[in-house]
Amino acid sequence: MVTGYDHLLYLVGVVFFLRGVPDLLLYVSLFTLGHSLTLILGVLFAWPVNALLIDAAIGLSVAYKAFENLGGFTALFGRGPDPRAAVLGFGLIHGLGLSTRVRDLGLAEDGLLTNLLAFNVGVELGQLVALALVLALLAGWRRGPQFARHAFAANTVLMSAGFLLAGLHLSGFLMESTS
After folding, report:
1. Residue 77 lies in domain
2. Are 116 and 43 in contact (CB under 8 A)?
3. pTM score
4. What's the structural domain count of the chain?
5. Can you give the pLDDT of all 179 residues of the chain as single tens digits?
6. What is the C-alpha to C-alpha distance for residues 87 and 18, in angstroms, rounded to an integer?
């Protein structure tokens, strides 16, 4: 989880403006549901997806969330997509990305479901620890006068990081396909 910087960047975007516990629980649960579903199904059924393309989509999910945080959809279209559906959908993509990594490990079929469930619980616990750290940092930052002034810049950096990740993975895909 700690090396899943793209995953963590997306979660930072998701919780950036959330303040209430009910909203945090809802959004984290939606992401976890999507993530868990495609992680397990992607490994069990060996879904043939290109890891580089999925990782590019994960990078775009970071950019999407930052753009949403900046009010980009509302500015362009008068309203944005349902953020709950987006978080669930991007959770599905993030889980599929992790499933490609797990499949690359070449795990034995014997006890695979049990091992996957245990692995997923570990990933989700790691996510909760990372999320607690992010929330603590955000809570401290929100108390200061700089939060409102720097929220735009922070989300612009987040969006740029998402586009950079997407570009790197797309470049890798293009280089791989021309080899």
Report:
1. 5-178
2. yes
3. 0.91
4. 1
5. 445 788 899 999 999 999 899 999 999 999 999 999 999 999 999 999 999 999 999 999 999 999 999 999 999 999 999 999 999 999 999 999 999 988 888 878 888 898 899 888 988 898 889 899 999 999 999 988 889 889 999 999 999 999 999 999 999 999 998 87
6. 13
